[in-house]
Structures are given as structure tokens and as C-alpha cells.
Amino acid sequence: MKVFVIGSGVMGSGIGQVFAMAGHEVTLYDVKEEALKKAMEGIRWSLQKLQEKGSVKDVESVLSRIFTSRDLSEARDHLVIEAVFEDIKVKSDVLGRVSPLTDEIIASNTSSLPITELSRAVRNPERFLGMHFFNPPVLMKLVEVIRGDNTSEERFREALDIVKSLGKYPLPVRKDVFGFVVNRILFRLFTSACALLTQYTPHEIDYVAIKELGMPMGLIMLLDYTGLDVNYDISKEAERRGFPFKCDVLEGMVKSGKLGRKSGQGFYDWSKGKPEVKATSGPDPRELLRGAVEEAKWLISQGVVTREELETGLKLGLGMSRGILELGEILGVH
């Protein structure tokens, strides 16, 4: 299979590496030669690390299957994965230009933008869908495969099989809902955590998220880690689409330059590296979990996903030791 990845940033280069490791010929496309050079250097470094761990046998063999290009017309007759900046106008523009070049599947790696909306830019939208790899793509086992309103059943099943062939777990998202499955649940957890900031410190909230919910990183720290500006932008987009992801304190923090890890200051001080959570108690874990449990039940009731798929996806995507619904039952969330 020939694969054309549009965008050679962290996600695009990682996705390209995954396909090349699975034996496919990959072309990484970017408008900047510098970006392509950096991407190839990053892929070589990653492959060498994997070789040291015994996960990759021959680095040069994998690299020989990866090509770079600044010419979009080279996407002709390739499976296309779009992994450009998370902006609907930017994505729509590139999708509109690439779709006449191939009759194969075209997938967007968007983490939350509506697939149906993006499909309006695509010629023959029945072959367009979401293929949301998690970061870093090489290490994360989960890929959400999202069916838009126009996606055909045949192409949807084909995409699930492709993801499975990469050694990944394909989470079928059968309806195009904002945030898909994993991020939609995460946004509910963020909203609950933010609401508790008036009564508890970030340390106390994160202590419970780690200790009681089995998360690898606290929820408030995760907001910092992924960027307060990024999360503020997502919350505005969610609000515009009628989804209640709210964190009122973000606006003021972003305006004052506190962006989290990237700026050195957020809810935590990151100036000396990853901060420690210093607390021994915190809120009732059910207060953090309730909204996420309700959302999980809604997703299942709407036929978006099955319980087993949802729980597996959350464990793989968020690194939780238990699924949301299992946790809810253990803690007595009603």
C-alpha cells in the first residue's frame, strides 16, 4: 500500500513511521523543506531507540520506505492521511486540493473537528473518514476511526482493517460526535476538575485523579501539559458546537501568559521540570467521575460505540487502569 501523509510535524511524521514500520511505502508531504528534514531526523532517532529496545530489526530498511515531497500531486493513487494544523479552514483547503488526485481512502487525523464538516471539501466524500492517532503515534496503541455522515460502510470497515494491520487497536466511532469518544470523556473529566477548583487545590484534585481514578497524570496537570491555550481554544470550539466543556479560569490564565508546561507556569510551576503532586486527600472521586460516566452511557445509548470498545479505548488512550464505567460501578456513581 502507498501512503501519502500531509503534514510532517510530530503527528504526521509519527503516523508515517508507523505505516513504514508495517511495511508500507510512505511519502511525507510538507510545504517547508526544513520541516521534512527535521521529520526524517526525528524518525531516524525514534527508530534507533526502538532498535535498542529490540522493537525494530533494521532501521535502514524502514527508512528506505519513507520519501519526502513538497509536491502535492505525488499523492496520486495513494491512501491519504491529512495531519496538518488543527484548523478547519486549513484542513478543508488541503483536502479540497488533494481529493481530485486519488480514489483511495482520505482520512483526517483531527482530534475533534467534525468529519462531516470536513467532508464537504472532499470530492466523493463516501471514502472520507477520521483516523485519529494518539500521541506519540509510534507508541500509542489506540486509533479512533470515525465515520462521518457521508462515509460508506465499505470504506469504514476497510479503514478499521488497515488500522488493525498496523498492530493498533481501532476504536470504531460510528457517529460523528464532537470530541469523538476518548476526548469527549476527557473533556467531561476536565470540566468536573475545573468546577472543583473553587473548593480544592490543583494538587488535591490531581491526587484523587491519580490515586482513585488510576490516571497516570492528574487532570489539572494534564491541562498544563497539553497547553492551557490549546484547551481554552478547544473549550470555545466545544461551546460553539453545544458541548459543555467549561473551564472558566483558563481565559484569564491564557491572557496573562500562563500557558502551562510550554511557558513554565500554569496551574503548576514547570520551571524545574515536571512538578510533583503534593497532597494526601482531595474531593470525593465520584464528583470527578459523574459527568464522564453519564457521557459514556450516552455514547453507548446512541450507538456511537459499545461498552467494551469504550472501556478499552479509554484504557489505551488515557492510560487508565480501569474503564470509566467499571470505575463508576466500583465507586457507586449513579
UniProtKB/TrEMBL annotation:
One of its GO terms (molecular function) is (3S)-3-hydroxyacyl-CoA dehydrogenase (NAD+) activity. Keywords: NAD, Oxidoreductase. InterPro entries: 3-OHacyl-CoA_DH, 3-OHacyl-CoA_DH_NAD-bd, 3HC_DH_C, 6-PGluconate_DH-like_C_sf, 6PGD_dom2, NAD(P)-bd_dom_sf. The keyword Oxidoreductase applies. Residues 179-270 form the 3-hydroxyacyl-CoA dehydrogenase C-terminal domain. Its EC number is 1.1.1.35. It is an enzyme of class 1 (oxidoreductase). NAD(+) binds at G7, S8, G9, V10, M11, G12, D30, E86, K91, S111, N135, K262. The record marks H132 as: Important for catalytic activity. It comes from the Archaea. Residues 2-176 form the 3-hydroxyacyl-CoA dehydrogenase NAD binding domain. One of its GO terms (biological process) is fatty acid metabolic process. This is 3-hydroxyacyl-CoA dehydrogenase. It comes from Metallosphaera sedula (strain ATCC 51363 / DSM 5348 / JCM 9185 / NBRC 15509 / TH2).
